[in-house]
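User: I'm new to structure prediction. If I give you an amino acid sequence, what do you actually give back? Let's try with this one:
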Amino acid sequence: MLYSPKWSKAKKNLKSFICDTLRSRVDFQVINYRRAHDQLGRAVITVDKVEKLSMCTITAERKEYNNEQDIRINLGDWDFDDVNKNLSLQNQAHEQLKKEGIYGQYDFFSALEEYFNSSIKDSLKSTDILIKILCILDRRVGKRTLLKMKESILTEHELVQEFYKLRCEAEDMYICL
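Assistant: Good question. You get back a string of structure tokens that encode the predicted 3D arrangement of the chain. For your 177 residues, that looks like this:
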């Protein structure tokens, strides 16, 4: 599924939320593979033109399949006829991926949709790594809020910590993690 509205419009909107100190350093790209059957590819977050997070659909789907197989092995359940159980196992595998910081391009679009349609206050409470990263980069999150996050950030995924450190350094807030 390709992103709707147009990616160029969404990217412009997303870039408008990036804090001034990082606006020229952080970028977002969506790369679609025309020859792929679903035309999906990957989404990328770069800092200083270096990929910090690549959200490749093929990689994510392969890993999700492997996670689902591992869950089935642990349960000893190879009944593929129960559609609801299959969906439940697939959702479990997908949520496990997100906790590991492995995303597909479609996850990036879902996170964008949620981020654009939620208040910054609600987004900061999100358990989604992508939404947390977008919040940390957001100009609406000020230095006081960043300082308040200092303790809780230690319990977050390493990607979130990396972007937190980047933002603090960009704001001349030298916080040791």
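You can read the tokens as a compact description of the fold. Here is one thing that stands out. The beta strands are 26-31, 42-47, 50-56.
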